[in-house]
Amino acid sequence: MAQKPRTFKFEGVTMTHYFTDNWEKVKNFKAKPDDVVIATYPKAGTTWMSEIVDQLFFGEIRRESSSPSIFDRMIYVARNPKDIMVSYYHFDRMNKIQPDPGAWEEYIDKFNTGQLVFGSWYDHVQGWWEKSRSYSRICYVFFEDMREDPAREISRLCSFLGLSPNETQKKEVLRKTGFEEMKKSMADALSNNDEFDESVSPFMRKGIVGDWKNHFTVAQNEAFNEEYRKKMKESDLKFKMEI
Ligand code: A3P
């Protein structure tokens, strides 16, 4: 495997060539009417939401109880910035196609200044938040809410997607998309993946809210809170840093 990639600005956003080599195709992507698009900033729960949507559509539920009228739906998953940073930092350590994260102290600054791959978390979460208010076809979901009450959030998703699973089906989706269950299935799926070095840090790491408390010093936390307040002051978007 080649060296860790360098980052550069691409259309104003920090990127690596792994994500821009195919840019024409990405730019020309057109969703089909029955596609469901999942969007997230890295480490917000992309894999988790993908598994839930996959279970909802390709498990038993859709065939039995869905309306046929899915059209252009988008699900956005947002996660609090402190846990994103911790998760992303460990991901950058273990993923050979991500840039080297460097020291943790500097990582917080890179996060705040949009230097991590995919750019500014602040722009991402706020941009989608604004869009979700004008387009009812975007469902804005929080990782923390999924952790707090996955059954409630899956029900909300089902309403959005026009699905009406019965209690047994819901329980099955919950079981299959629980952290431990997914950790087992991901271990198999990733066993031949040579981009990830799970001996450095597992992909399914902890899956909790509040792990940032094990990484931020008191001073780092205070400095980050100050920066966060400034950058989010215009927005009514609120994150739970613990549950
Ligand atoms: P941690 O590193 O904090 O454990 P993404 O898929 O966007 O890369 O996000 C990965 C993060 O989502 C990881 O966070 C991972 O553990 C967490 N995650 C994935 N599946 C999960 C699940 N079923 N329940 C809780 N967290 C999950």
From TrEMBL:
SUPFAM superfamilies assigned to the protein according to its UniProt record, in alphabetical order: P-loop containing nucleoside triphosphate hydrolases
Sulfotransferase domain sequence ranges: 33-71, 73-235
InterPro entries according to UniProt: P-loop_NTPase (IPR027417), Sulfotransferase_dom (IPR000863)
The keyword Transmembrane belongs to this UniProt entry's keyword annotation: no
GO molecular function, one term: sulfotransferase activity
Keywords from the named record: Transferase
Domain of life: Eukaryota
This enzyme's EC code(s): 2.8.2.-
Enzyme class: transferase
PANTHER family (alphabetical): SULFOTRANSFERASE SULT
Protein name (database record): Sulfotransferase
Species this protein is from: Scleropages formosus
Taxonomic path: Eukaryota, Metazoa, Chordata, Craniata, Vertebrata
Gene name of the encoded protein: LOC108933016
